[in-house]
Amino acid sequence: MASKISLTRFLVEQQRVDGHIPSQLRLLLEVVARACKSISQAVNKGALGGVLGSAESENVQGEVQKKLDIIANEVLIEANEWGGHLAAMASEEMDSIYLVPNRYPQGEYLLLFDPLDGSSNIDVNVSIGTIFSVLKKPEGSPGVTEQDFLQAGAQQVAAGYCVYGPQTTLVLTVGDGVSMFTLDREQGSFVLTQENVRIPADTKEFAINMSNMRHWDEPVKRYIDECLQGKEGPRGKDFNMRWIASMVADVHRILTRGGVFMYPWDKREPNKPGKLRLMYEANPMSWLVEQAGGAATNGRQRILDIQPSQLHERVSVILGSKNEVDRITSYHTPL
Ligand code: AHG
Ligand code: MN
Ligand code: MN
After folding, report:
1. Of 131, 143, 145, 130, which Cα lies nearest the Cα of 96?
2. What's the whole-model pTM score?
3. CATH code of the domain occupying 7-194
4. Which residues of 173-210 are buried (b: 16+ CB within 10 A; e: fewer)?
5. CATH match for 205-332 among 1.10.940.10, 3.30.40.10, 3.40.225.10, 3.40.190.80
6. 66 CA distance to ligand 3 centroid (A)?
7. Atom of ligand 1 nearest to the CA of 118
């Protein structure tokens, strides 16, 4: 029987290939994976661990925090602050950046995360996850400021997510394709279960919150309307809809069997560019999708090329099977 490849072995081997992963980055990814294991344990315990329900506080986005949002955030910070691989962290659940305390050595990386994605699904036992993005601290600047984080997604050096579903699966890219690792609970380690993940260019499946239909912009209305007309319509085929309401689980389905995911700008709050956050939701997911042969735009521009101007900036997201994303983008007027 072929021996199983653990995440540790995979990263060590990647480090050997052309120094693909520097040792600090390897440590960082190991530590994030360890934190995800511990979040997975808390998620599994559910009501038995007293982790369900609201924390009755609000984050910087004005969203009510769930207990697990806060627990996952703390787990990621505690795991990452002492290893010497990071200069600072940023999270959906923290207003400003978190500097590595002076008592620990400073590293060269910046870590951004959505500690718990799909918060509305926690209490109903539906898949949720953790999303992360890794940037390099710009050279030459002493200390770390929020400005150092404001790099386009194309600058990411690693990105991934961990989905806590029937299985706990860690999905990772360091710019050399996408690999998936399944948590082996008996061994307590992530095991490589899929390499070179590819998203089919065509699909018959879309994911969008249909309850917002009346608020959508014309190009999105047109695309969904054409899908809904099925075989008799201009697309000449029937479409299926899936919407989990955890981006992490919707993207996991798309990386597994294709499809298109949209959280577009809509007229509810016209001044907000979208609901999802650019730096720790859209950027890491867009890079994973592109690395698997898919595409990701905001309707007018490749997401990875957007220059952020704020840490918690929001963005319109269209990602997944390349031909569908190209079609939806072509329905929008270019900038
Ligand atoms: P978060 O739980 O980190 O705030 O993100 C939730 C996001 C995303 O995962 C999902 O696609 C979307 O919110 C669902 O929102 P609605 O149910 O409001 O449409
Ligand atoms: Mn989220
Ligand atoms: Mn979240």
Report:
1. 145
2. 0.97
3. 3.30.540.10
4. bbeeebbbbebeeeeebbbbbeeebebbbebbbbbbee
5. 3.40.190.80
6. 9
7. 2
* Helix (H) / strand (E) containing 32: helix 23-45
DSSP β-ladder status, 109-117 and 64-66? unpaired
Q: Is 117 in the pocket of ligand 1 (CB under 6 A)?
A: yes
Instruction: Give distance in angstroms: CA of 160 to centre of ligand 3.
Output: 14
List the chain domain ranges.
7-194, 205-332
Tokens of 259: 């499809």
3-state SS, residue 100: coil
Kindly report, residue by residue over 310-326, the tens digit of the pLDDT. Answer: 999 999 999 999 999 99
Instruction: Give the ligand at the shortest distance from the Cα of 263.
Output: 1
Q: Ligand 1: does its nearest atom lie under 6 Å from the Cβ of 324?
A: no
Q: Does 119 contact ligand 1 (Cβ within 6 A)?
A: yes
Distance from residue 140's CA to the centre of ligand 2 (Å): 32
Strand order in the sheet with 128-136: 98-99, 86-91, 109-117, 128-136, 158-164, 168-173, 178-184, 189-194
Q: From the first residue on, what is the mean pLDDT of each consecutive set of 10 residues in the chain (335 residues)?
A: 88 85 95 98 95 90 91 98 96 97 96 97 97 96 92 98 98 97 96 98 98 97 98 98 98 98 95 96 99 98 98 98 98 83
For atom 3 of ligand 1, which residue has the closest CA? 117
Predicted local distance difference test score (pLDDT) of residue 335: 65
